[in-house]
Amino acid sequence: MRRDVTIDMEKHWKLLTILIGANDMCRYCDNTTAYSPTQFKYHLKHALDKLQRNVPRMLINLVPMFSVTVLPELSRNPLCDVVQQYMCGCGHGGVPKHLLSVIDDVAHQYYVAMRDLATSGNYDSNNFTVVLQPALYKISLPYNRITGEIDKTIVGPDCFHPSNVGHELLAYNLWNTMIRYPVGTKPLQYPIYTDLDTGGLKYACPDNRSPYIWTNWNSKMLYFTKVFKGNATTNFSNSTTTYHVTTSTTLDYRNVTTPAEQESKSLMWILIGSVAGTVKIIFVVIVLLCSVHKCKTKQPKNSASEES
Length: 308
Description:
The chain has helices at about 20-25, 35-55, 80-85, 95-120, 165-180, 190-195, 215-220, 260-305, and strands at about 15-20, 60-65, 130, 235, 245. It is mostly helical.
């Protein structure tokens, strides 16, 4: 990017999406130390720190991977079984059930590591941020409505990597999670086929009340109204912050403060505080000078009375 003359590294915003964890899960049973959640978090933090130091104006989507133990359900034939065994030694159909449960637990610990990094506050600033987009974490494989079986068109011929259909669904899932849900309300599972039922994929668009991608910062500035339509509320607790939102997501934007407004208000209060401090100092100086002056004017009278 630095060599590209059309990109201004200091002014142009960059979007980076990190979908990570599948290969680590697939190799975990071969080396539990190298692919441990601790090592996973260490290496991911190192990458995020390096990006923060070297790439200004960047928004990073951290997308936790669903457990690779779903792979056997996507196999279409014996050739797929062989490919999956080669590609993912810890998640194919021949793996014992007790080991598959271990991989499920590792997937959860990877998710926790990514969540903790994204919500640590270490990556939130005016020109850099990291946001957890968790909607793939507890993915439900889509079903074919005609056959009632899992729709295996979402994977390619190797029954491992996404097909064009799978990539489109993943992109749709990510985009709508970025746009529709503030941090703290993002679902762990996005209902892709709910939208297909209504006539195709419905991509969300930012509205004029929140014309931006939701981040940790602007989500914290949003005040959720407690005046709901009806009485139905949903408690989302997918991150360290819990919000209560109506099923229709009725939000109160009247008290929303943008980062620019917050910064200007902070500067205003700093200025007011500085002026008040200066006035206080001047007042103290005047009081001291008056006290000194009174002492000087009283001194001759005392001297005269002593001589008399």
